[in-house]
Amino acid sequence: MEPINLMSMNTSELKVFLDTFDHVFSDCDGVIWTKKPIPGAGEFFERMQQLGKTVHFVSNNSMRTKQNYEDLFEAANIKQGFEKLTVPSTAIAEYLKSINFNKTVYCVTCPETMNVLQSYGFTCKYGPEVGTDLYTNYIQYLEDDEDVGAVAFDSDFNVNLPKMYQAITYLARPDVLFISGATDRYVPLKPGSLNLGTGIFTDIVSEEANREPTQLGKPGKLFGEFAMKRAGVTDPSRVLFIGDMIEQDVGLGRATGFKTLLVLTNNTPEDMKAHQTLKPDYYADSLGSLVPVFNNV
């Protein structure tokens, strides 16, 4: 089935569409804001609540601090946005807590993810941030540490060969957990350029260690289920998930059983329709473009 443009629906069709879901889960970067709020996004969520829908937020971005998120939600006129937000750092910490994990976590993560893990009482190990100039000295990064019981990857934009050597060494032990947060192989920095994300390095370690990580970021089903649990939602078929990335956002929707709405911040309609395996159920130019549409319902 080809994606449906919500802008092309008449009032009767929009009412049928609204009856298919009770909860809205939305990505943040590229949907609510880029460098500044995207016009109309806050009004869209307000309208959804007026129509009786609950609103929650799900992002792969663990790099932002609580204050940074709160400032962005406030700028977009969204109240209590951070309280309704699920990110990989929280999912990783809650997952480890749920299994009574009591060893050291080796973090190939952004600083904020490590801060969250430490706030939950976990011991973290990280680095080295810089390797040696002489290649033969890299043997030191092949030394195991029996205290390490988990390797976590999540948005470390300072990833390097020493960290990857160390991660692969720890993962050689089958009892060491392998966890990934954000899986983004590419990030939307500059159109027409190759903008690698950190997920590509997680994939390299996964291949070399011959281990598949537990995915606690988009598009992992476990992450979607964790977001549902935090929101008190039990039926994924009654969720509309909104995102701007096909692999991460539409992928999460498909994995978890959500309906999906793609906003075309970082994709053209041609890109969307040409994707071989993932297509959203619905699409629109932006959330702001839908405000006058739903105001007439």
Report what the structure shows:
The protein has 297 residues and is α/β, with parallel strands linked by helices. Helix content is 35%, strand content 16%. The chain has eleven helices and twelve strands. The protein has helices at 11-18, 41-50, 66-75, 88-98, 111-119, 161-171, 199-209, 221-231, 246-256, 269-274, 291-295; strands spanning 4-5, 23-26, 54-58, 85-86, 104-109, 123-126, 148-154, 177-180, 214-215, 239-243, 259-263, 282-284. α4 (88-98) runs parallel beside α5 (111-119), α6 packs across α7 (199-209) and α8 crosses α9 (246-256). The active site is at residues 27, 29. Mg(2+) binds at residues 27, 29, 244.
What features would you highlight for this structure?
7-stranded parallel beta sheet; hydrolase; Phosphoglycolate phosphatase 1B, chloroplastic-like; 297 residues; 5-stranded parallel beta sheet; magnesium; alpha/beta; metal-binding
Map the helices and strands.
Layout: E1 4-5, H1 11-18, E2 23-26, H2 41-50, E3 54-58, H3 66-75, E4 85-86, H4 88-98, E5 104-109, H5 111-119, E6 123-126, E7 148-154, H6 161-171, E8 177-180, H7 199-209, E9 214-215, H8 221-231, E10 239-243, H9 246-256, E11 259-263, H10 269-274, E12 282-284, H11 291-295
Helix pairs in contact: 4-5, 6-7, 8-9
